[in-house]
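Fig. S4 source data, part A: sequence.
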Amino acid sequence: MKTTIAEEDLLTCARPGCTNTVPRAKMGRRRIFCSNDCCRAAHNGHFHVEVGHEPVPEGERPTGRIFFVRLSRGKHLVVVSSELSKPSADHLARQIEELICSHRRAKGGAVE
């Protein structure tokens, strides 16, 4: 006996950019992703590290301890540190990038 899934029971995958449908479960918690790959991709989104500075009068260069480092993923944003000099802010941003991106670069390699 074949059963069909009603149109209202079909959901679209919750991962941004994925248009696959997800059938609604009969029992238990409802699935929101079409596959485990989509679930991992949605939760392991790319972080973005940004160095910026406080507003300065037009025509002037930003100088002094007015720089900040912030970390964002999607719509979420957090200021990691503020009131930094430019070299300190750049150094902190590089360290954060290396920390959160190291698992992306470390693919394979020799075992020591």
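Fig. S4 source data, part B ends here. The two ends are 58 Å apart (CA to CA).
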